[in-house]
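User: Can you predict the 3D structure for this chain?
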Amino acid sequence: DFGVFMVKTFVELSHTEDVKLLHDNAMILIALLASLPFWLRVRQCWVQYEGCNEPIARIPIVLNMIKYMTAFPPIWITAAASLGYYHTSLPAVIALAAAVNS
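Assistant: Here is the predicted structure, written as C-alpha cells:
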C-alpha cells in the first residue's frame, strides 16, 4: 500500500525517537494522503464547471463537487482526534460528517 510505504519512509527518514512527534506527523501525513484523491476530483469537477457554459448543466457538476468535498471533514476530524483533540460532541460530529459523505 502506498500510504503505508510513505509513512514507513517518513519514520525512517525523520531520525527522531520522540514517539509522540512521530505519531503526530504520521497522522498528518496520512490525512494528507487520504485527502489527495478527493482534492483531485474536486479540481477535475472545477475544470469541468469552468468549461460548461449552460447554467442548468452546471448544477450536477456543483453537486458532484459538494459530494467530494464532504469527504474532508471525516478525514480531518478523525486526524484531529488522533492528535489528542477531544470534545464531548466529537463522536457525533464524526458520525454526522461520515453520514453526509455517504
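The helical segments are 2-14, 19-51, 55-69, 72-82, 90-101. The longest helix spans residues 19-51.
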